[in-house]
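Researcher: Let's do a round of design. I'm pasting the structure tokens now; please hold your answer until I've finished.
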């Protein structure tokens, strides 16, 4: 049946056609499927949606929902069978919106959309939108975003413009934002200005070629290539026309011939269609090298504008920006109009339509050239009263975003930027440190005395010694002989008897005290081989012993004291002068010691039945990455990854057979294990939806029953714990709620999106009721991540990858001690590495070494240069390794 009509009280719908097929229905042993005629070559989403609407209305009449539809499309009347979606909630929602629109007492609110460019009422709607200052005049904003602004009471462009606030400067300038700020576009329109965010790099200084192609998307080929070449003061225009699709390769070869004659060139285009065209034609030509040169030199001017420029126009189309800059088109046309001219030419072969298209195409190339010249001038820093090098351009002012309201946005803290250099110099001379060290010290005896006191030498030299040790070797390291003599004579040019100091802390239940150990080592002479040497244990003596390292790292990890704070604390409380690089050495040595403990924590976690996992971003020195944390109830394991890709988790968790508790990050969904999503994350999102849509009754029809269901389950958890034996009683309620969601449909966007999200992850929301000991939230991992986040904010952009890894090893040990209720300090002081078997209780005293040396092969970073210099020093006429020190404490390692 053709041109069938369906009518009811509200709708009158005309079917292009209905086809009778076999299958039972109310009509008999047959039913109908919808047919649609479409003039285009391709079948799109709109055509599929229309078929689904036809199928929904047919199902109400015949009692049978058609499983497919038929589309006749294109000039050749190609037949395509389209499978219809069995879930008709979306089409029911559309029909419900149409009925509400019909029954409404007032017309719907005006919103401009992509269909307006082919609508016969577009001018009337556009005039009304301009009169209302409608926010939908800004192209690129979707209906959801417009509605979100409407919920905040923002309906006009002027209102939107007042919401823009300049963003803070990024610490890494190479990472430019790709986000488009609609509020800044509205501000540009309101102020009739052109705003620039971070001037882009200058274009290469070569021969410039401006490219524009014309095509009919339905036909799928390019029929016109326009090119404007500028070499110095000379301008050359080219147009390559194709009558049919088989001539596309010919005009492409003509384009390559023209580019080859240019030598070195920069090719400009507007949008990504030209680049897609070049890549497609590269597969059809043998001149791939020239095509690759063209693709490499191609500059998409639109992408530069999208990232950096905000014009006082409603869109970034070439027509709007070109007209702003004074460009005029010979033919008042658009893309849709050029397609219409092409169709008319194909039917009539009248040259007037062809001439219109050729003129329109060259005008686009010239407009692209004008826009490019403006961007080049803006990059070069044209003053605000000269917005363009073109005299015909609009007099819109050009302003950097960072200059917006600079006078009103001056910070109360930090460095002030003065316009006058004299003011800047005077301001620098007024700071506290400068006043104390360069001005007042000239007249203040107290300040002079303090400076002299700081210059009198290192503080540690004045400390009293608690222990004295003499280090003597019994064998020669060269020949292993035992016939040695100790020589304490002072021989010019030869190594002398030397001494070092080491420092430690004695930790007792009643307090902490300082301990200073002095070690002496005489010069050793082997009578067998004649070698002169110093004892190896003396040469590798550690300057700071284990207890001091443990206390410092305990304060750094557990209480998050910075190295500067630790330096002052050790000086004030113990009189010890410990500098920042030495604290880094402490961290490195303890991380090496407890690396085996760190690896054991991961093995222990993966051998359990439940793990919690989370991640957070961290910015390091010169790079950024992510810190991941994996926890159980008693263990915590941190690790660093250079990105957020979760592919490594499959290999890491391949032996794990328990339940993974996580948030809703998509990387976790690919794990081949049972999963429990954090319901707290879901509740936060629900709460924000309710705050954004306070009067949405459909949204509350989902959230309120969900809250009631979850509350009853949590009450059971509070009473009996996380035990499947008691939680399984709630399985019927959970299944009933899911079934009700599956059969509902909502007109509210917020309610419908929440319903789809719940159904998508429903199988991972209530896993905990089927297992014992599985939590319904990810609190353990979030707590561990939060502790790291406090530290991350203090060292952002300062720490290196190696330093972060060392910190994460110690942080893993500390957090595990914290989860187990063990003292982190006592564990480190015990010198044990088995954290799983450690018990924080008094036991037999463990023997401690009298002296401590650096691990084999380890050289502290702050002594590496000294070691290399002494290694190259000759010893008594022999080539070999020199002792680290020769006289006293000038070199403490």
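Researcher: That's everything. Go ahead.
Model: Designed sequence:
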């Amino acid at each position: 049946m053709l041109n069938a009509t369906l009518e009811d009280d509200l709708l009158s719908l005309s079917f292009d056609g209905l086809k009778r097929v076999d299958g039972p229905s109310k009509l008999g042993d047959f039913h109908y499927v919808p047919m649609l005629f479409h003039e285009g070559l391709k079948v799109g989403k709109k055509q599929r949606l229309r078929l689904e609407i036809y199928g929904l209305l047919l199902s109400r009449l015949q009692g049978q929902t058609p499983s497919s539809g038929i589309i006749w499309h294109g000039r050749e009347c190609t037949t395509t069978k389209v499978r219809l979606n069995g879930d008709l909630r979306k089409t029911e929602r559309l029909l419900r919106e149409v009925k509400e629109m019909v029954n409404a007492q007032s017309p719907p609110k005006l919103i401009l959309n992509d269909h307006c460019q082919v609508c016969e009422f577009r001018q009337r709607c556009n005039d009304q939108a301009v009169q209302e200052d409608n926010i939908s005049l800004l192209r690129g904003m979707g209906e959801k975003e417009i509605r979100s602004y409407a919920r905040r009471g923002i309906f006009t462009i002027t209102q939107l413009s007042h919401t823009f606030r300049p963003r803070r400067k990024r610490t890494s300038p190479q990472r430019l934002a790709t986000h488009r700020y609609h509020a800044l576009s509205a501000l540009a329109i309101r102020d009739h200005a052109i705003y620039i965010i971070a001037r882009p790099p200058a274009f290469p200084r070569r021969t410039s070629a401006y490219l524009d192609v014309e095509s009919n998307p339905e036909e799928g080929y390019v029929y016109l290539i326009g090119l404007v070449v500028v070499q110095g003061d000379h301008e050359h225009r080219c147009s390559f026309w194709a009558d049919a699709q088989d001539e596309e390769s010919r005009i492409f070869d003509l384009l390559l011939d023209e580019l080859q004659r240019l030598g070195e060139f920069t090719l400009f285009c507007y949008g990504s269609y030209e680049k897609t065209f070049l890549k497609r034609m590269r597969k059809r030509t043998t001149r791939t090298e020239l095509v690759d040169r063209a693709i490499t030199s191609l500059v998409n001017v639109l992408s530069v504008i999208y990232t950096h420029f905000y014009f006082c126009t409603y869109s970034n189309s070439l027509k709007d920006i070109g007209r702003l800059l004074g460009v005029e088109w010979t033919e008042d046309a658009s893309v849709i109009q050029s397609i219409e001219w092409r169709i008319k030419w194909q039917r009539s072969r009248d040259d007037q339509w062809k001439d219109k298209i050729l003129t329109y195409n060259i005008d686009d190339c010239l407009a692209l050239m004008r826009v490019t010249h403006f961007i080049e001038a803006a990059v070069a820093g044209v003053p605000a009263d000269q917005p363009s090098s073109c005299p015909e351009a609009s007099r819109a002012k050009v302003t950097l975003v960072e200059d917006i309201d600079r006078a009103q946005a001056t910070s109360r803290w930090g460095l002030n930027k003065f316009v006058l250099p004299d003011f800047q110099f005077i301001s620098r001379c007024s700071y506290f440190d400068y006043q104390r060290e360069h001005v007042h010290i000239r007249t203040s005896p107290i300040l002079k005395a303090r400076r002299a006191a700081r210059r009198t030498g290192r503080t540690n030299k004045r400390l009293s010694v608690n222990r004295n040790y003499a280090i003597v070797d019994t064998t020669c390291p060269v020949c292993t002989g035992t016939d040695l003599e100790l020589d304490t004579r002072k021989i010019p040019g030869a190594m002398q008897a030397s001494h070092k100091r080491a420092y430690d802390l004695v930790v007792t239940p009643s307090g902490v005290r300082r301990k200073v150990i002095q070690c002496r080592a005489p010069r050793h002479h082997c009578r067998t081989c004649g070698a002169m040497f110093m004892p190896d244990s003396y040469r590798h003596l550690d300057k700071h012993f284990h207890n001091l390292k443990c206390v410092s790292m305990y304060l750094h990890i557990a209480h998050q004291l910075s190295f500067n704070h630790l330096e002052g604390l050790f000086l004030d409380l113990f009189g010890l002068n410990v500098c920042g690089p030495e604290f880094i050495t402490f961290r490195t040595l303890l991380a090496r010691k407890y690396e085996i403990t760190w690896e054991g924590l991961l093995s222990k976690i993966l051998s359990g039945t439940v793990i919690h996992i989370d991640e957070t971003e961290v910015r390091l020195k010169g790079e950024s990455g992510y810190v991941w944390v994996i926890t159980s109830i008693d263990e915590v394991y941190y690790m660093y990854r250079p990105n957020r890709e979760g592919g490594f988790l499959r290999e890491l968790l391949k032996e794990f057979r328990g339940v993974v508790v996580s948030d809703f990050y998509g990387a976790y969904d690919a794990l081949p294990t049972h999963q429990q999503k954090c319901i707290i994350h879901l509740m936060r999102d629900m709460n924000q939806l309710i705050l954004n849509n306070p009067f949405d009754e459909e949204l509350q029809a989902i959230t309120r029953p969900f809250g009631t269901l979850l509350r009853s389950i949590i009450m059971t958890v509070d009473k009996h714990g996380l035990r499947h034996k008691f939680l399984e009683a709630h399985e019927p309620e959970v299944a009933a709620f899911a079934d009700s969601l599956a059969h509902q449909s909502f007109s509210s966007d917020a309610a419908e999106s929440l319903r789809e999200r719940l159904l998508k992850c429903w199988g991972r929301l209530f896993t905990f009721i089927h297992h014992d000991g599985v939590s319904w939230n990810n609190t353990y991992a979030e707590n561990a991540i939060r502790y790291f986040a406090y530290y991350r904010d203090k060292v952002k952009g300062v720490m290196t990858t190696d330093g972060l890894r060392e910190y994460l090893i110690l942080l893993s040990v500390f957090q595990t001690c914290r989860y187990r209720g063990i003292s982190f300090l006592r564990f480190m002081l015990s010198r044990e590495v088995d954290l799983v078997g450690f018990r924080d209780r008094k036991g037999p005293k463990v023997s401690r070494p009298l002296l401590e040396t650096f691990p084999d092969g380890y050289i502290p970073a702050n002594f590496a240069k000294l070691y290399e210099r002494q290694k190259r020093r000759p010893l008594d006429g022999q080539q070999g390794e020199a002792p680290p020190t020769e006289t006293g404490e000038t070199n403490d390692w």
